[in-house]
Write a structure and sequence with these properties.
The chain has a seven-stranded mixed β-sheet, with helices on both faces. A four-stranded antiparallel β-sheet has the order 10-11-14-13. The chain has 388 residues and is an alpha/beta fold. The protein contains 14 helices and 14 strands.
C-alpha cells in the first residue's frame, strides 16, 4: 500500500533519532513555559528582545482589531493592502535605510519571492553551505545553477565567481546563521558582489532588531552602504516579537518583486492587526539599547559558565549559543535530561544541521535573568558523564 512507505519512513526516522515532537504551550512566549502542566525554563525561542508578549504590542493588537477587523480579505495587489500594511512598509524601509520595503506573511515566503524573481535558467546562484532551508528551496525554485561554497569561505566564493560565465550571478547568504550563531563576512561578500557584478541577497532573520545601531540589523552592524545590487530580507517573528517578514532594497528591485514575485502576488495579505503590532514593535526596537546590552551580558555570562564542559561551544557572539554534542541520540538524551530538571533546550539534528553535528541550540532572550542562566549552567554540569 502507498502508506506503507510512510510508515517505513517514520520508523526509519525513529531509528536514527530524527523524529521531532511538538509540545503544546499553555502560556504566552517567554522565559518560563507551561507544558503538560509543568513549569519549564525555556531556552528555545527566537524572541531575542522579549517582545512577543510585551504589553505595548498586546495593546496595539487590541486597538487594531477594533479599528481594522481581523482579516485583510485579499492579496496585496487586489484589495488586501490596508493602511497599516502601507505604513509598516514605509517605516521598515526608513528604519533599515533602503528605498522601499515589501511586507510578507513569513520569512520563508519572502525568500521564495526574491531569488526566483531575480534569476532563472542560464544564471548561477552562489550560496553558503549552511544557509537556511528557505534559501536552499528558493535557489532550487529559481532553476538556476546552484553552487554551494564552504561556510564563509570567501576564497572559494571568489574563485567560483571568477570562473563563472553565467548571464547573471547571485550571492545568497544568511547574515547570522541560525544553527551556528556566527556572522557572515558581509563586507567581503559585498566587495565580491561589486567586483563580479552580482546580486547580493542577505537573510537577516536573526540579526534584525539585535545587531547594529538601534537594532537596525546586520547591514548596519557592518555599515554597508545602500546599493541597488544589495537586497535585504528581515523576519519579524523573532526579535520584533510578531510574525511576518520584509524585503528591502532599491526602489526598482522592490517594484519588480511586487510585480513578479509569485509568493507575494498569489497569497492573501497578512492580518492588519499584525502590521499594527509591528509598527509598535519598531518603536520598542529603536529604543531597545538597554535590552540589547542586557542580552550581550547574558551571552558573555553563559559562555563563561559553559567553559570546561565536554561539549564544544561554537564561536558565536549572538543570542544563538549552540553546544555541539555530535551524535543524534546523545543530543536527544542530553535535552531530555535537562527537561527532567525543568529546562527546555531543544536538540537539533540532521537535516537541520550536518550529519555528525547534532547539538543543543541554546537561545537567549533579553527577558532572561542571570539566575536563570545559572540554573542552566548548573544543570548541564550535573549532566556530565563522570567518565569525562
Amino acid at each position: 500500500m502507498i502508506w506503507d512507505e510512510l510508515e517505513e519512513g517514520l520508523a526509519g526516522l525513529a531509528a536514527e533519532g530524527l523524529l521531532r515532537r511538538r509540545r503544546t504551550l499553555d502560556a504566552p512566549c517567554g522565559p518560563e513555559a507551561w507544558v503538560d502542566g509543568r513549569r519549564l525554563l525555556a531556552f528555545c525561542s527566537n524572541d531575542y528582545l522579549g517582545l512577543a508578549n510585551h504589553p505595548t504590542l498586546v495593546a496595539a493588537a487590541r486597538e487594531a482589531a477594533e479599528r481594522w477587523g481581523v482579516g485583510s480579505g485579499a492579496s496585496h495587489v487586489v484589495s488586501g493592502h490596508l493602511r497599516p500594511h502601507a505604513e509598516l512598509e514605509e517605516r521598515l524601509a526608513a528604519f533599515v535605510g533602503r528605498d522601499r520595503a515589501l511586507y510578507f506573511g513569513a520569512g520563508y515566503m519572502a525568500n521564495l519571492a526574491i531569488v526566483p524573481t531575480l534569476v532563472g535558467r542560464d544564471d548561477v546562484i552562489f550560496a553558503d553551505k549552511l544557509n537556511h532551508a528557505s534559501l536552499i528551496d528558493a535557489a532550487q525554485l529559481a532553476r538556476a545553477e546552484h553552487r554551494r561554497y564552504p561556510h564563509n569561505d570567501m576564497e572559494a566564493l571568489a574563485h567560483g565567481l571568477q570562473r563563472s560565465s553565467a548571464r547573471r550571478k547571485l550571492i545568497l547568504s544568511d547574515a547570522v546563521f541560525s544553527m551556528d550563531g556566527d556572522l557572515a563576512p558581509l563586507p567581503e561578500l559585498f566587495e565580491l558582489a561589486e567586483r563580479f557584478d552580482a546580486w547580493l541577497v542577505i537573510d537577516d532573520a536573526h540579526g534584525f532588531g539585535v545587531l547594529g545601531p538601534s537594532g537596525r540589523g546586520s547591514l548596519a552592524h557592518f555599515a554597508l552602504p545602500p546599493s541597488p545590487r544589495l537586497i535585504l530580507m528581515g523576519t519579524l517573528g523573532k526579535a520584533a516579537g510578531g510574525s511576518g517578514a520584509f524585503v528591502a532594497g532599491d526602489g526598482r528591485v522592490i517594484e519588480w518583486l511586487a510585480q513578479r514575485a509569485r509568493s507575494y502576488i498569489f497569497t492573501t495579505a497578512s492580518s492588519p492587526i499584525m502590521a499594527a503590532v509591528l509598527l509598535a514593535s519598531l518603536v520598542l526596537i529603536a529604543e531597545g539599547d538597554a535590552r540589547r546590552a542586557h542580552l550581550q551580558q547574558l551571552i558573555a555570562h553563559l559562555r563563561t559558565g559553559l567553559t570546561g564542559l565536554p561539549w564544544r561551544q561554537l564561536p558565536s557572539l549572538t543570542a544563538i549559543q549552540p553546544l555541539l554534542v555530535g551524535d543524534n541520540e546523545a543530543a536527544v538524551r542530553l535535552s531530555e535530561r535537562l527537561l527532567e530538571r525543568g529546562l527546555w533546550v531543544p536538540a537539533i539534528r540532521p537535516p537541520t544541521v550536518p550529519v555528525g553535528t547534532a547539538r543543543l541550540r541554546i537561545s537567549l532572550s533579553s527577558a532572561h535573568e542571570i539566575t536563570q542562566l545559572d540554573a542552566l549552567i548548573a544543570a548541564l554540569r550535573d549532566c556530565v558523564d563522570p567518565a569525562h
